[in-house]
Design goal:
single chain; 201 residues; alpha+beta; 2 domains; two-stranded antiparallel ribbon; 3 helices; globular; binds zinc ion
């Protein structure tokens, strides 16, 4: 069944540097255009990938990228390309992660104390926010672990499902689920680890 509302499937490149992201994005677009998955034409309709407000119109071969193209209620929309170091959030777009796990000591720091609360503890989130902002500006940012005290780069923390840092991401607006084969080739062409997200505007 097709979802109600404006939803996206996102692929985040977790490893590309801010400097490499632009040229890599151009090569990925060239490849998807050559495959007929998207076109070079862009539109602002049904794209909510702030700060990017346009996406590539699907191409005649869009069905090649999805697991099942037979349901006529799915009409793929534009594919937005997000270049630049940023935090990518799935779901309904919370600004903070639910919990953060230290890669050194495995301690888990709770930010949103479900089910008691539905909003972030800003005091707990602040150092992570500061580290992410520093990383966005300079490519480097660290957060001291509340448990072990080690200053860990923000890109090494585990922010949990649906919260990823990366300098390149692709938002497929309104597409049926992408096929595992397409995702594997996508990842191979990026040449980096990736994470998938799903969300709604
Ligand atoms: Zn730690």
């Amino acid at each position: 069944m097709a979802p109600v509302g404006d939803f996206f499937e996102r692929v985040v490149d977790l490893e590309v540097t801010g400097e490499e992201a632009g040229p890599l994005a151009a090569r990925m677009v060239d490849w998807m255009v050559a495959e007929g998955v998207i076109t070079r034409e862009t539109t602002g309709d049904a794209v909510y990938s702030l700060p990017v407000d346009v996406g590539h119109v699907p191409g005649p071969g869009w069905a090649r990228a999805v697991a099942d193209a037979s349901d006529p209620s799915w009409i793929p929309g534009p594919v937005a390309v997000l270049v630049g170091r940023d935090q990518h959030v799935g779901g309904q777009g919370e600004y903070a992660a639910d919990a953060v796990t230290c890669p050194r000591c495995s301690a888990r720091t709770v930010v949103i104390d479900h089910p008691e609360r539905f909003t972030a503890d800003d005091e707990v989130w602040q150092p992570f926010n500061d580290g992410i902002e520093a990383w966005k500006e300079t490519g480097r940012g660290e957060v001291p672990c509340p448990a072990c005290g080690v200053h860990v780069p923000v890109t090494e923390w585990d922010f949990g499902l649906g919260f990823d840092l990366g300098a390149l991401a692709f938002d497929f607006w309104g597409w049926p689920p992408l096929s595992l084969r397409f995702l594997a080739e996508f990842r191979a062409r990026l040449g980096h680890r990736t994470e998938e997200q799903y969300g709604k505007f």
